[in-house]
Amino acid sequence: MKTIKIPYYTSTMDLHVAEENLKATIYSGTDDYDAGKTEKELVEEALLNPIGSEKLCDLAKGKNKVVIVTSDHTRAVPSKLTLPILLREIRKGNPDADITILIATGLHRATTVEEQRRMFGDEIVDHEKIAVNHAFEQDEFEFVCGLPSGADLWVNKIALHCDLLIAEGFIEPHFFAGFSGGRKSILPGICNAATVNENHSYKAIASPYATTGVLEHNPIHEDMVYAARHVNLAFILNVALNSHKKVIAAFAGDLEAAHEKGVAFVRSLAQCPGITGDIVVTSNGGYPLDQNLYQSPKAVATAEACCKEGGVIIMCCSCVDGMGGTHFEKLIVRGTVDEIDAYLSKIPPKESISEQWCAQIYSRILKKHKVILVTTYLDHDLVRKANMIPASTPDEALEMAYEMMGRDAKVVVIPDGVAVLAVKED
Length: 426
What we know:
This protein is of the alpha/beta class. It has 2 domains: about 1-25 and about 275-425, 2-enoyl-CoA Hydratase, Chain A, domain 1; about 40-270, Rossmann fold, CATH 3.40.50.11440. It has 16 helices and 20 strands. It has helices spanning about 40-50, 55-60, 80-95, 115-120, 120-125, 155-160, 195-200, 200-205, 220-230, 255-270, 295-305, 325-330, 335-345, 355-365, 380-385, 395-405; strands spanning about 1-10, 10-15, 20-25, 65-70, 100-105, 130, 140-145, 150-155, 165-170, 175, 180, 235-240, 245-255, 270-275, 275-285, 305-315, 370-375, 390, 410-415, 420-425. Helix 11 packs parallel to helix 14 (about 355-365), helix 12 packs parallel to helix 14 and helix 13 (about 335-345) crosses helix 14 (about 355-365). The two termini are about 30 Å apart. The relative contact order is 0.16. The model has no long low-confidence stretch (mean pLDDT about 95).
């Protein structure tokens, strides 16, 4: 019997799988990577050697109003480490710079002050200027231009009325943008709801190029890059993390050139063959990404690449913050998966509903697979209404899966489904 630790909230849950059933356990290579330097050294070295750009301290010379776009409470960006270094570099170029830290929420709820303290530390919260993006407050945004998709680009005014715009983030495989990081800080990060919704429209999400690890011809990625260029995002700092949320590499400089280097690094460690199993067990990597059901399709989509049609996916996700979106909750419980998908497919891009992409992706997966959701926080009746099967532990879920697939079913385990880029077997 093998015992495998599955990330769950701020700790782990144990999964026990008989050796004769366990076909494979898939980890990202990020956990075995040794950079040979401290996290701080990696970040500082990246800023000293920017890719396709002048150094940040040089860019900051003569720039009075500076905006740093950073991620919200649902992302594991190590801002306690990175923000003080970025602030130092900016002030090295202009000690009197008026700096605003703008939290990129996309369509998420506002980040609380308590969460900001956990993310940034007391020193920054108490002494720096911090603003939070509110996607549904239209007066906070200005129109910039049309996007390649035909969507209108509306961006937070704070970012548009500054002398220097920079962003920090981290890079990992992303199930419809290809990879996170880089341009994503702008769109969806600091855009209004209408822009985000159209970028995440049914048509865009349904594109065969809108998938994990794919950037070329990806309509969602193309809109994001276009948006970032047109708001003059001048400099990025992106990091790569292991499963312990520790920095193992850092990339700074031009929004495309630095991001491309980071993507190549992450791909080299995260990409692996999608070994097919009858049952696939995964998680969203624990906190902060497993706070709600709205974020959970990230790992479920990884499991999809490794699960045979008609197989069972077991998703461990605390959902300590509930469903994670009022629109998503209404959509995911509005009927059968076929009814949900049919309803969403008829919505024109410019009438896209906030969070509909999440229900769309779940519907696609649930048409082919049973999904068992392991959660000790989300009401199990609500899980059933969302066309999923609730369980309280991975072992309970695995027993359910064996009853569906047979006692000799082969099990593939991907402890952190967000960190792995699984290439589906032909």
